[in-house]
Amino acid sequence: MTKTYSLYEAATGLFTGKRLHCDDEGLLAVRLPAGTLAMEGAFDHRSQRVDLATGAVLAYRPPAPSGDHEWDGVARRWQVKAAVRGAEGRSAVIYARIQALEATQGRAVREATLGDASAMKRLKEIDAEISDLRKELGRC
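Given the sequence above, the corresponding structure tokens read:
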């Protein structure tokens, strides 16, 4: 019967995230990369590790990816902080609005170049809004 084995680093006990499926333990030993060991079962390399002294599987919290992350104990994962997600979402909205404004300016540029005063006014309004949005980006 085929068994699943999770690989872990022999020096640290950290699961590598790789698994082998074998039905022969002799074949398993041949397939192990250097410096790794195997434990029968499917273990989560992001929240579990092997205690090298006892061989027990323990809960594990890896280092935070950045200061913008917080540990979610339920999901057992690092998550981007809500305040950061909100700022990123607002930035995306601002960039989309700037892109939309820039996409509409072509006709106004052509008409202003031909001497249309109302087109020049529209261009100035577009430019003012883009300028305000860029200032807001600096605060996000």
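DSSP finds three helices and seven strands in the chain. Try to locate this feature in the token string yourself.
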